[in-house]
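Database export, one record per block. Field names are fixed; values are copied verbatim from the stored entry.
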Amino acid sequence: MDEFRTSGAARDPRFLTFRSAGHLYAVPADSVSEVMRLPAIARVPQAPQSLMGLANLRGSVLPVASVRALLGRSEAAATPASRLIVLQGTSPVALAVDEVSDLVRIAHEAIRTAEADVAASTGERLQGVFESKSDVVKILDIPELLRVAFVARTTSLQKADVGAVSRAPACALANTVRARVVTFDVAGQEYALPLGAIREIVATPAHLTIVPGSDDAVLGIVAYHDRLLPLLSLRRLLDLPAAAGRGEQALIVSFDDVLIGFVADRIRAVISVDVERLEKLPPVLAARLGGETQVKEIYRAANDRLIAILAPDRLLREDVMKTLAQSDATIKSTRQRHAPEDEVVELRFLVFRLDNDEFALPIDAVDEVARVPDQITRLPKAPEFLEGVINLRGEVLPVIDQRRRFDMPSSIATTGKRLVVVRTDRHRAGLIVDSVLEVLRCSPNQITSSPDLAGDSHDVVRSVINLEASGRILLLLDPSTLLTRSERDLLDAFGKDRGKTSRKTRP
């Protein structure tokens, strides 16, 4: 998770240069908030080709646009050099590029805006060109490219009316817990902290306020939002050799209401942990370290790479933890005295998977979850999205292949597939999904509107559930818009024909 952050403006403009499909481009550095490695991206069904999906950037949901696709070029598999360039503004967007090259300062007179149209190749929109070393660099007009590629739409957050908490589905749902950790380097060794314990990752500030007489592990304090944040050196806490610098990035860990920043040499990545490859610290080593080592577990990653997973609460001395506990007790007592009488409303959603993407439906819209029947009756001249009909406890139920409905490739796998029976104000239908993951509880403030760049898919995915602690983004489906108007009319006609048939067959 390499990050680049811009600094103040200068007299001559600065540009961030990058490569895409072998070409060298640039964007103004003042428009860039940071550069990062490609995170997990939630693909939006039926979205414009240029929209790769949505990504979670420290709690904010950002649309990710492919520069290759914006320029009308074929996509390529991501490489270790691939990066996201996050652009700031009223509607932030991230650009996926093949490689970030350099940060350059160019004199005004060296930028040739008059040659923009002449230098532009098919699909390119340019603001100008300049020469850097032996290359000609094209300054992309990103706003114009986005305008051409996406239909601007006015969106509003339309949360599902889940009402009171409904009963859980009749079948047993296996909750899938995915352990994720943030890995980082300290003195040449790889460590990790649970992602759920980390509130944010920030660049270490250039200037720190030193606290006289503090522990040698305390690098200093900085202003963080509305509070003061102490920064502690992981090298010191782990008794590792000191370095000339103080470390590039700080992992902000929350101990209930108390925040502490732990400074690492370099953040590596966020990875999903296979719990079967986690091992406790060998007893002999734990005994030699007094049984209270900061290392909680050892993870055997790919290529026999060993990652030491730290326990956040063991990084600090006992007296420091007591001070934190006393502070927590005071804060909690104050909050209890001033807490509102009304309890926080929790919403419930059924989470399911299609391919590698996670979707959610309001639990009140779900009647049940069942195994996909072996026999599905095909209907002649049925629309492509309609897989057929089944008899579900005496009721004829239309079945929709949700992969096909979202223009996803078909899957030959049958293990784990489930039928999610959904009810709307006009219809009841079964949705075939790859697997059902969990019944999720979340608060309303974790639901945000889908970015405007979603195109036609915005009709179906109007909101997303942003699970900041685990880094997951769930696409929240609106049951009333799962079908287009023509498809709803087809089901209406199907229902009428079914009624006529049943009346004719009565004795």
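Remark 1: Confidence is low (pLDDT under 50) at residues 1-10, 152-178, 287-292, 501-507.
Remark 2: The chain is about 15% helix and 40% strand.
End of record.
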